[in-house]
């Protein structure tokens, strides 16, 4: 009896594992490859300290750095709007992008980097 419960547990575990693999089926979204770090060391530091936490994970809902398709409609709004959203916060974007040391020029450079421009 104990032996058949052990086998049942193994079978159940395999079913769970195989089912979980099905959840990673393609969603129709293109795979986004993270862009190389910014060449400007100061910009790379700001990106790593502030932007990366949200813009390098598809689970946050933020547009991924390097996903030009996701950034295109945002960039179409104009840089002034995007900087305003960054400074004041917008949807899940915290005010100042959680970067208290960033200037408006830094925000512009970070947005351009993440948008692939």
UniProtKB/TrEMBL annotation:
SUPFAM superfamilies in UniProt: Cytochrome c
Domain Cytochrome c, first and last residues per copy: 38-115
Region forming the signal peptide: 1-24
One GO molecular-function entry: iron ion binding
InterPro entries from the UniProt entry: Cyt_c-like_dom, Cyt_c-like_dom_sf, Cyt_CIE
Protein keywords: Electron transport, Heme, Iron, Metal-binding, Signal, Transport
Protein name listed in UniProt: Cytochrome c5
Organism: Oceanococcus atlanticus
